[in-house]
Design goal:
187 residues; mainly alpha; 0% strand; elongated
Length: 187
């Protein structure tokens, strides 16, 4: 008989669980209202107001109507009340601030121009001469404040270097084939 009791309790518990709805996880991240939605919310609040005052549940009703948090609606109403009382047109534009982050340090490129070209061939040379970090010089390159410069002419070749290079190239030609010269195999 005790098994019948346990079975009936399990059946009752199962039936109770069937009617209980599992809570749905909601992402509570604050979403930004578009300007059009802000205008519609403010117009709905104005329509519900009497002499510039809202009723007790008006912000809750409007928040539910637009699927917003009640605090967002209250903030919008508070922001629009002051201009409305002073007969100033209400601007419900975005309240996002402008630039964020570290302020830009002014660049004095005159120092770079004073360095001779042969002393600023690489980024490391420029860093050491200007006493700046390599990161900052690369940032300036990326922003376009500086530009790279390379020359196809090699001005620092001496006559001896040019002769030795030419001699090396001539030595790579096979000696036996003067009619049809070919380079040696580089195995």
């Amino acid at each position: 008989m005790p098994w019948l009791f346990v079975l009936s309790m399990n059946l009752i518990f199962f039936l109770l669980l069937e009617h209980v709805v599992a809570p749905i996880e909601v992402n509570h991240r604050r979403k930004d209202m578009t300007e059009e939605v802000r205008k519609q919310v403010y117009q709905a609040l104005l329509a519900r107001s009497k002499n510039g005052k809202l009723g007790k549940k008006d912000t809750r009703v409007v928040a539910d109507q637009f699927g917003l948090h009640i605090r967002a609606v209250q903030r919008l109403w508070k922001r629009g009340k002051i201009p409305l009382a002073n007969f100033i047109p209400v601007d419900l534009g975005s309240r996002k601030k402008g630039r964020v982050g570290r302020k830009a340090i002014p660049v004095d490129l005159e120092q770079l121009r004073n360095i001779p070209i042969k002393d600023r061939m690489t980024i490391e040379d420029v860093c050491s001469k200007l006493n700046m970090s390599k990161w900052r010089i690369q940032r300036y390159l990326k922003k376009g404040l500086l530009r790279r410069h390379s020359s196809s002419i090699k001005p620092y070749f001496t006559e001896a270097n040019k002769k030795s290079r030419l001699k090396w190239c001539v030595d790579m030609i096979r000696r036996g084939l003067l009619v049809d010269p070919r380079f040696k195999d580089f195995f």
